[in-house]
Design a protein that fits this description.
168 residues, alpha+beta, Arc Repressor Mutant, subunit A, 2 domains, two-stranded parallel ribbon, 6 helices, 5 strands, 42% helix
Length: 168
């Protein structure tokens, strides 16, 4: 396992990779970023596979921040997820940047059309934010819902606007 800090125009991001793929992407506070910088300096060098996943993730974020066409999402690792969560997240990564999908629509795509609330729980448990784009999931009435990432709904709005203005 290897941790890294990625900088965005909005907040810093903690990325954790394993040999299998990206295991976690989380927005972090400036205070935690300062502590994590020290931790990152003390850790062992990444394995060859971890380094590949870090490089792929870096390229993906650079494309997003610069509003360029997004490359393929790096390999993801959903180690501790339930089968339902994996189904939901795997369907969600198929949504196009700059678009939205309702909890109900996502539940249907995941094979459980009446499981909107469970989809909401899967979004709250999403360990790989941005890459698994829970910010694209909205309520049936068009409202944003509650974004649990650092910065809350303002971060969600910013991501949706950034994607809408990108080259995708």
């Amino acid at each position: 396992m290897h941790r890294a800090i990625f900088h965005s125009p909005l907040h810093d991001i903690e990325v954790i990779v394993k040999n299998e793929g990206v295991a976690s992407v989380q927005w972090i506070s400036p205070e935690y970023s300062a502590k994590l910088t020290i931790i990152c300096k003390l850790q062992a060098k990444p394995s060859q596979m971890e380094n590949i996943h870090l490089n792929d993730t870096s390229k993906w974020f650079e494309a997003l921040w610069n509003m360029k066409t997004l490359p393929q999402i790096p390999d993801l690792s959903f180690d501790d997820a339930t089968e339902f969560q994996k189904n939901v997240w795997n369907e969600l990564v198929k949504t196009a940047p700059g678009t939205t999908i309702t909890y109900q629509q996502l539940a249907g795509l995941a094979g459980s059309k009446n499981a909107s609330r469970a989809v909401g729980s899967a979004m709250a448990a999403n360990p790989i934010t941005i890459l698994v784009p829970c910010h694209r999931v909205i309520q049936t009435n068009g409202k944003l819902g509650n974004y649990s990432g650092y910065g809350g709904d303002e971060t969600k709005k910013w991501l949706l606007e950034l994607e809408a203005n990108s080259a995708n």
